[in-house]
Amino acid sequence: MTERPRAIDAPPSGSYEEMLQIVEEMDTPVGYRAELIRGKIVVSPWSRLRYKRVMKSLRLQLEPHAPEGHDVDVAPFLFVFPGSERACGPDLHVADEAAFEADGRHADASALSLVAELTSDSTKDVDWLDKMATYGQIVPVYLLLDMRIGEINVLWDPSPKGYRSRTNVPFGRPVRIPAPFDFELDTSEFAVEEYVDPEIEQR
Predict the structure, then answer these.
(1) At 198, is the pLDDT very low, low, confident or very high (cuts 50, 70, 90)?
(2) DSSP 169-180
(3) Residue 102, exposed/middle/buried by CB under 10 A (0-12, 13-18, 19+)?
Protein backbone atom coordinates (compact mmCIF):
# COMPACT_ATOMS: atom_id res chain seq x y z
CA MET A 1 0.00 0.00 0.00
CA THR A 2 1.07 3.58 -0.61
CA GLU A 3 0.44 6.97 0.95
CA ARG A 4 -2.00 7.87 -1.82
CA PRO A 5 -5.62 6.62 -2.08
CA ARG A 6 -6.02 3.75 -4.51
CA ALA A 7 -9.18 2.44 -6.20
CA ILE A 8 -9.49 -1.33 -6.34
CA ASP A 9 -11.27 -3.55 -8.83
CA ALA A 10 -14.91 -4.34 -8.10
CA PRO A 11 -17.83 -5.64 -10.17
CA PRO A 12 -18.71 -2.72 -12.50
CA SER A 13 -22.42 -3.55 -12.36
CA GLY A 14 -22.52 -4.00 -8.59
CA SER A 15 -25.33 -2.29 -6.71
CA TYR A 16 -24.68 0.06 -3.80
CA GLU A 17 -25.62 -2.69 -1.34
CA GLU A 18 -23.31 -5.17 -3.10
CA MET A 19 -20.44 -2.70 -2.97
CA LEU A 20 -21.02 -2.14 0.75
CA GLN A 21 -20.94 -5.90 1.27
CA ILE A 22 -17.58 -6.09 -0.53
CA VAL A 23 -16.20 -3.32 1.68
CA GLU A 24 -17.43 -5.12 4.79
CA GLU A 25 -15.76 -8.37 3.77
CA MET A 26 -12.45 -6.79 2.72
CA ASP A 27 -9.32 -7.65 4.64
CA THR A 28 -8.12 -4.05 4.80
CA PRO A 29 -4.50 -3.66 5.97
CA VAL A 30 -3.99 -2.25 9.44
CA GLY A 31 -3.89 1.53 9.26
CA TYR A 32 -6.01 1.73 6.09
CA ARG A 33 -9.69 2.38 5.44
CA ALA A 34 -11.96 1.38 2.58
CA GLU A 35 -14.58 3.85 1.39
CA LEU A 36 -17.05 4.11 -1.49
CA ILE A 37 -16.13 7.17 -3.53
CA ARG A 38 -17.61 7.97 -6.95
CA GLY A 39 -18.92 4.42 -7.30
CA LYS A 40 -15.51 2.87 -6.60
CA ILE A 41 -14.00 1.20 -3.56
CA VAL A 42 -11.07 3.39 -2.51
CA VAL A 43 -8.47 2.23 0.01
CA SER A 44 -6.41 4.93 1.69
CA PRO A 45 -4.35 5.34 4.85
CA TRP A 46 -5.80 6.75 8.04
CA SER A 47 -4.32 10.03 9.24
CA ARG A 48 -0.58 10.39 9.74
CA LEU A 49 0.97 10.11 13.17
CA ARG A 50 1.85 13.80 13.21
CA TYR A 51 -1.87 14.62 12.98
CA LYS A 52 -2.71 12.95 16.30
CA ARG A 53 -2.11 16.13 18.31
CA VAL A 54 -4.43 18.08 16.03
CA MET A 55 -7.21 15.49 16.23
CA LYS A 56 -6.84 15.27 20.00
CA SER A 57 -7.18 19.05 20.30
CA LEU A 58 -10.24 18.98 18.05
CA ARG A 59 -11.85 16.17 20.03
CA LEU A 60 -11.23 17.77 23.43
CA GLN A 61 -12.62 21.12 22.28
CA LEU A 62 -15.67 19.66 20.58
CA GLU A 63 -16.72 17.30 23.37
CA PRO A 64 -18.12 19.94 25.81
CA HIS A 65 -20.22 21.47 23.01
CA ALA A 66 -21.51 18.36 21.25
CA PRO A 67 -25.29 17.85 21.10
CA GLU A 68 -26.73 15.77 23.92
CA GLY A 69 -26.21 12.08 23.29
CA HIS A 70 -23.54 12.67 20.63
CA ASP A 71 -20.04 11.25 20.88
CA VAL A 72 -16.79 12.66 19.46
CA ASP A 73 -14.41 10.02 18.13
CA VAL A 74 -11.62 9.34 15.67
CA ALA A 75 -12.23 5.60 15.47
CA PRO A 76 -12.42 4.09 11.96
CA PHE A 77 -16.18 3.86 11.47
CA LEU A 78 -17.83 3.91 8.07
CA PHE A 79 -20.93 6.09 7.60
CA VAL A 80 -23.30 5.32 4.74
CA PHE A 81 -24.97 7.94 2.53
CA PRO A 82 -27.56 5.95 0.54
CA GLY A 83 -28.92 9.03 -1.22
CA SER A 84 -25.59 9.64 -2.93
CA GLU A 85 -24.41 6.00 -2.83
CA ARG A 86 -21.33 6.85 -0.80
CA ALA A 87 -19.74 5.40 2.33
CA CYS A 88 -17.16 7.57 4.09
CA GLY A 89 -14.87 7.14 7.07
CA PRO A 90 -14.07 10.69 8.27
CA ASP A 91 -10.89 11.41 10.22
CA LEU A 92 -13.06 12.64 13.11
CA HIS A 93 -16.80 12.46 13.63
CA VAL A 94 -19.47 13.61 16.06
CA ALA A 95 -22.52 11.35 15.94
CA ASP A 96 -25.52 10.20 17.93
CA GLU A 97 -24.40 7.27 20.08
CA ALA A 98 -27.66 5.46 19.25
CA ALA A 99 -26.34 4.88 15.72
CA PHE A 100 -23.77 2.46 17.12
CA GLU A 101 -26.32 0.24 18.83
CA ALA A 102 -27.44 -1.24 15.51
CA ASP A 103 -26.11 -4.47 14.02
CA GLY A 104 -23.55 -4.39 11.25
CA ARG A 105 -20.44 -2.35 10.56
CA HIS A 106 -21.86 0.72 8.82
CA ALA A 107 -23.48 3.62 10.67
CA ASP A 108 -26.25 5.79 9.24
CA ALA A 109 -24.89 9.18 8.15
CA SER A 110 -28.04 10.90 9.41
CA ALA A 111 -26.63 10.40 12.93
CA LEU A 112 -23.74 12.78 12.20
CA SER A 113 -23.69 16.32 13.57
CA LEU A 114 -20.11 17.09 12.44
CA VAL A 115 -17.28 15.55 10.43
CA ALA A 116 -13.67 16.67 10.11
CA GLU A 117 -11.08 15.77 7.49
CA LEU A 118 -7.37 16.59 7.74
CA THR A 119 -6.43 16.90 4.11
CA SER A 120 -3.07 16.92 2.33
CA ASP A 121 -1.94 16.68 -1.29
CA SER A 122 -2.74 12.97 -1.44
CA THR A 123 -6.37 13.32 -0.31
CA LYS A 124 -7.38 16.89 -1.14
CA ASP A 125 -9.32 16.08 -4.33
CA VAL A 126 -11.62 13.65 -2.53
CA ASP A 127 -11.97 15.83 0.58
CA TRP A 128 -12.63 19.07 -1.34
CA LEU A 129 -14.85 17.67 -4.07
CA ASP A 130 -16.60 14.36 -3.51
CA LYS A 131 -16.75 14.39 0.29
CA MET A 132 -17.72 18.06 0.44
CA ALA A 133 -20.63 17.39 -1.91
CA THR A 134 -21.64 14.26 0.01
CA TYR A 135 -21.39 15.74 3.49
CA GLY A 136 -22.97 18.99 2.27
CA GLN A 137 -26.33 17.34 1.70
CA ILE A 138 -26.84 16.03 5.22
CA VAL A 139 -24.07 16.74 7.78
CA PRO A 140 -24.68 20.00 9.74
CA VAL A 141 -21.00 20.98 10.04
CA TYR A 142 -17.92 20.00 8.03
CA LEU A 143 -14.43 21.00 9.19
CA LEU A 144 -11.81 20.74 6.47
CA LEU A 145 -8.29 21.29 7.80
CA ASP A 146 -5.83 21.92 4.99
CA MET A 147 -2.60 20.72 6.57
CA ARG A 148 -0.42 21.88 3.67
CA ILE A 149 -1.69 25.45 3.53
CA GLY A 150 -2.32 25.68 7.28
CA GLU A 151 -5.94 26.79 7.40
CA ILE A 152 -9.29 25.52 8.59
CA ASN A 153 -12.45 25.71 6.50
CA VAL A 154 -15.79 25.59 8.29
CA LEU A 155 -18.82 24.67 6.18
CA TRP A 156 -22.40 24.51 7.45
CA ASP A 157 -26.08 24.78 6.52
CA PRO A 158 -26.41 21.68 4.31
CA SER A 159 -28.84 21.53 1.40
CA PRO A 160 -29.56 19.24 -1.58
CA LYS A 161 -27.04 21.34 -3.52
CA GLY A 162 -24.38 21.39 -0.80
CA TYR A 163 -23.31 23.72 1.97
CA ARG A 164 -24.76 27.23 1.84
CA SER A 165 -22.24 28.84 4.21
CA ARG A 166 -18.47 28.74 4.57
CA THR A 167 -15.65 30.54 6.32
CA ASN A 168 -11.94 29.90 6.66
CA VAL A 169 -9.08 31.19 8.80
CA PRO A 170 -5.35 30.40 9.01
CA PHE A 171 -4.17 28.18 11.84
CA GLY A 172 -3.49 30.25 14.92
CA ARG A 173 -6.70 32.28 14.78
CA PRO A 174 -9.95 31.30 16.52
CA VAL A 175 -12.91 30.33 14.35
CA ARG A 176 -16.60 30.09 15.19
CA ILE A 177 -18.11 26.61 14.98
CA PRO A 178 -21.82 27.10 14.23
CA ALA A 179 -24.88 25.40 15.71
CA PRO A 180 -25.43 22.85 17.06
CA PHE A 181 -21.98 23.48 18.63
CA ASP A 182 -21.81 27.28 18.79
CA PHE A 183 -18.37 28.03 20.24
CA GLU A 184 -14.98 29.49 19.36
CA LEU A 185 -12.45 26.85 18.28
CA ASP A 186 -8.82 27.49 19.20
CA THR A 187 -6.58 26.51 16.27
CA SER A 188 -3.26 27.52 17.80
CA GLU A 189 -2.13 23.86 18.10
CA PHE A 190 -3.06 22.81 14.57
CA ALA A 191 0.10 23.73 12.65
CA VAL A 192 2.37 20.77 11.85
CA GLU A 193 5.32 20.32 9.51
CA GLU A 194 3.71 18.86 6.42
CA TYR A 195 5.38 16.08 4.45
CA VAL A 196 5.71 16.77 0.71
CA ASP A 197 5.17 13.75 -1.54
CA PRO A 198 8.13 13.72 -4.02
CA GLU A 199 5.88 12.36 -6.76
CA ILE A 200 3.50 15.29 -6.40
CA GLU A 201 6.32 17.84 -6.05
CA GLN A 202 7.74 16.81 -9.43
CA ARG A 203 4.47 17.44 -11.28
Answers:
(1) very low
(2) EETTS-EEETTT
(3) exposed
